[in-house]
Amino acid sequence: MGPQELSSPKSGGPRRFPAWLRKRIPAEGQSNAVRAVLEELRLATVCSSARCPNIGECFACGTAAFMIMGDTCMRRCNFCAVKHGAPAPLDADEPARVAEAASRMRLSYVVVTSVTRDDLPDGGALHFRRTVEAIRRRTNASVEVLTPDFRGVMDSVETVASAWPAVYNHNVETVPRLYAAIRPQADYARSVRVLEYVASRHPSVRTKSGLMVGLGESRDEVLGVMHDLRRAGCRMLTIGQYLQPSRRQAPVERFVTPEEFDNYRREGEAMGFAATAAGPFVRSSYRAVNLTAQADATSQENGV
Questions:
Q1: Cα–Cα dist 85/74, whole Å
Q2: More confident residue, 6 or 180
Q3: Is 203 within 8 Å of 277 (Cβ atoms)?
Q4: How far apart, in whole angstroms, are the C-alpha atoms of residue 30 and residue 188?
Q5: Which residues are bridge partners to 167 per DSSP?
Q6: Do residues 154 and 162 touch, judged by C-beta distance below 8 A?
Q7: Residues 146-173: what's their mean pLDDT?
Q8: Which residues contact 121 (CB under 8 A, 6 or more apart)?
Q9: Which of 27, 45, 144, 192 is the most exposed place for a label (fewest CB within 10 A)?
Q10: 19-299 domain in CATH 3.20.20.70?
Q11: Residue 2, pLDDT score
Q12: Sign of CA dihedral 266, 268, 283, 59
């Protein structure tokens, strides 16, 4: 892929991505087959809705991260390309269709995320649970859930966690200071409590979180978030470069270098995370199975 451009936060004019943020367009591979399954079964993916830069690679490899409860989010986060507004009613048949897609795609590891549904009494927790259970009935795949904060209602968190997914993922996304600008309807402490609840009540379920860098945070602030997550019992961490999906979202303040990402990865290892993925193209669901395998290997080495 050739050089790309985005708006400069200071000048308002275009600037080029640095060399380490250029990706080659992968061969089609299984992309057409994946798109056909998703279209036939009327399923959304966070890959498409969030304009993930890794979509070509993941689809070509025959994988996708399913996004349940529709494609319209009730919150307006300033980093996210997922459309927002009034969502449609829940589709009771959706869990079965996700399971069918996982079966057809022959997935051994399934990532299920969702839009935020503050309109639902339980935030959609039971729908998450039914999706996990449907996948388990239809396949032998491990399931990773990436959930919203459920407005901090721990009964909803429990509904999902007690379905025993392999991984319970909830992203803090950024440092506390930037929440008002980047995640105005979310709360940093609430997100940390979600992870702490799962880690303490369901220790056999691996907990995971992620954040973006390049939004104006400092290194010390990132390290502070990492310490908070470890104190909450979080075992897996992803750190990636924020890329502005369109001019409607927050601008990129800085491109973090590969060397800085390597430093964050080493810091994560030193803090005791079982697995830390840090790099320009790292995303929460990107190569998720590999990060889980790394966490399992580390746990076995440490006798956990």
A1: 6
A2: 180
A3: no
A4: 38
A5: 144, 206
A6: no
A7: 97
A8: none
A9: 27
A10: yes
A11: 33
A12: positive
Q: Please provide residue 127's backbone torsions phi and psi, each rounded to the nearest 5 degrees.
A: -65, -40
Task: Report how far Cα 63 is from the mean position of its chain's Cα atoms.
Answer: 15
How far apart (Å, rounded) are the C-alpha atoms in residues 245 and 215?
A: 13
What is the rounded distance in angstroms from the CA atom of residue 11 to the CA atom of residue 95?
Answer: 46
Tokens 């057809």, residue? 104
pTM: 0.90
- pLDDT attached to residue 218: 98
Q: Are strands 44-45 and 65-68 parallel, antiparallel or unpaired?
A: antiparallel
Residue found by looking up tokens 């990060």 in the block: 291
Q: 230 near 267, Cβ under 8 Å?
A: no
Q: How many residues does the chain have?
A: 304
Q: Phi-psi bin for 153: left (phi > 0), alpha (psi -120 to 50), beta?
A: beta
Q: Tell me which of 8-12, 13-17, 186-190, 263-267 is least confident.
A: 8-12
Q: What is the CA radius of gyration of the chain?
A: 18
Q: What is the 3-state secondary structure (H, E, C) of the chain?
A: CCCCEEECCCCCCEEECCHHHCCCCCCCCCHHHHHHHHHHCCCEEHHHHCCCCCHHHHHHCCCCEEEECCCCECCCCCCCCCCECCCCCCCCCHHHHHHHHHHHCCCCEEEEEECCCCCCCCCCHHHHHHHHHHHHHHCCCEEEEECCCHHHCHHHHHHHHCCCCCEEECCCECCHHHHHHHCCCCCHHHHHHHHHHHHHHCCCCEEEEEEEECCCCCHHHHHHHHHHHHHCCCCEEEEEECCCCCCCCCCCCCCCCHHHHHHHHHHHHHHCCCEEEEECCCCCCCCHHHHHHHHHHHHHHCCC
